């Protein structure tokens, strides 16, 4: 098997490791040893797994690739935000971000190389979709972030699947990633500390609601009506707003969990008082939180930020409809903060 055809060692869930070990007549406790080396000790080679027999280490080396990601660039903001540009085996690059909050460190991971959704305010879609990431390529982002934090004796407390790409268009790999993340033998991140964001892939919102776990769901909404949302988010033509809201109501009934709606405020596009009133009427009665996001400046998009006083007015109007509303704290404003922005710069440099 050529090295590029082998799965990554981080591709397998605990259940899949059990099957792999069983097929090789290895005792069940080898799985715990394997997971410990990968996710607790965070070693970088099979040779370091010294309590595994040499024959097993050789078989692991023959069967798996170890290192999915190489660090190309690391940017650190004055607010403590860290942005990584990781290189993949096939020459592509992806971004991962560590965000520091007063409640702990959060890591934002990417699920695809590029994106095909086409949101007009997002740098991730520049250049379109190249490919899906494997489970291991997503998992390795958290492992690499944790290794960075190890230097300061800190820990990843929560994970948001909100980086480049649409997680629900890489559904199986994303769900396997969550299982590894949540595994008591794996990265040990509690389900309630994991949030997945979708732009509105309706069939998989229903699937996600039926997973019967405590992982949080966020919907990228960004407009209060069909026509405006279609102009900002082409996916709305495939899965119209009315169908999206039906799926959201199903999620709320099925899970009993609060839903988050993300709303990027874009100067002159979706940020007027009339939009706030329309959004308030649309979501009134839902167990939801609206997260207002001052849009990041992306040179290729030429969108402007909503003035600060207008953001607070937008929030005030939503509050009047008794909708829980927050304004996202900005992270990494002095670095390439927008999703896909650092990768886009890197791609342009590689092509020039």
What do you see in this structure?
The chain has 352 residues and is of the alpha/beta class. It folds into 2 domains: 9-63, DNA polymerase, domain 1 (Orthogonal Bundle); 70-351, Aldolase class I (TIM Barrel, Alpha-Beta Barrel). It is 37% helix and 19% strand. The protein has helices at 14-23, 29-40, 54-63, 135-150, 171-182, 202-209, 226-232, 235-238, 241-255, 273-283, 308-320, 341-351, and strands at residues 70-76, 82-87, 93-101, 104-108, 112-114, 129-132, 156-161, 194-198, 216-220, 259-265, 288-294, 324-327. A 10-stranded mixed β-sheet has the order 1-2-3-4-7-8-9-10-11-12. It has a two-stranded antiparallel ribbon with strand order 5-6. Helix 10 (273-283) packs parallel to helix 11. The radius of gyration is 21 Å and the shape is elongated.
List keywords for this structure.
elongated, 37% helix, DNA polymerase, domain 1, ten-stranded mixed β-sheet, 352 residues, alpha/beta, two-stranded antiparallel ribbon, 12 helices, 2 domains, TIM Barrel
Mean pLDDT: 92
**Main beta sheet:** 10 strands, mixed
Unreliable stretches covering 5 or more consecutive residues? 348-352
Helix percentage: 25-40%
What separation lies between the terminal Cα atoms?
Answer: 35 Å
Instruction: Sketch the topology as an H/E string, one letter per element.
Output: HHHEEEEEEHEHEHEHHHEHEHEH
- The total beta strand count reads 12
Number of discrete helical segments: 12
Domain Radical SAM core: 101-334
Binding site for S-adenosyl-L-methionine: 165-166, 197, 220-222, 296
Binding site for [4Fe-4S] cluster: 115, 119, 122
Function: Specifically methylates position 2 of adenine 2503 in 23S rRNA and position 2 of adenine 37 in tRNAs.
